[in-house]
Amino acid sequence: MFMSRLSEASPPRAPAFPPMEHRAVIRLGCPLSEAVDCFQGDPALRLLPVLDERDRPAGAIYERDMRRILFNPFGHALLRNPSFGGRLDDHVQPCAMIDRSASVEALIDLYAAQGQSFHALT
């Protein structure tokens, strides 16, 4: 009887990636304060993909960079100061990119090429 219950059970499924429309992304040209809003709205967010005007990945805004600005006593004022660089474009960092359908081998190769600071946009 125990064996029959095991055979009837479904195999565990790997969690699927959430659809892209549910993931936080931002576009070049947006105010940096919009990136801050994305990070504040999702405490688990570590990097925010940045897209260009043709919806191609342009890089990423990293949480650690936002923290440096926000933890500054004048951080919120700096974000709204145009001479500081309140534009998002000035803070976009390069980020490795790989297609979601890429093989594990391709992902490992990309990881090996990037070193310890590996983050990839899928």
List keywords for this structure.
disordered N terminus, CBS-domain, 122 residues, 34% helix, two-stranded parallel sheet, alpha/beta, 5 helices
Q: How would you describe the overall organization of this protein?
A:
The N terminus is likely disordered. Helices cover 34% and strands 14% of the residues. β4, α5 and β5 form a beta-alpha-beta unit. It is elongated. The strands form 2 sheets. The chain has a 3-stranded mixed beta sheet. A two-stranded parallel sheet has the order 4-5. It is an alpha/beta fold and 122 residues long. It has a domain of 76 residues: CBS-domain (Roll).
**Overall pLDDT confidence:** 75
Count of helical regions: 5
Principal-axes geometry comes out as elongated
CATH architecture of the domain at 19-94: Roll
Secondary-structure class: alpha/beta
CATH superfamily of the domain at 19-94: CBS-domain
Major sheet characteristics: 3 strands, mixed
Question: How far apart are the termini?
Answer: 45 Å
Task: Note the run of SSEs as H and E.
Answer: HEHEEHHEHE
Low-confidence stretches: 1-8, 10-21
State the helical fraction: 25-40%
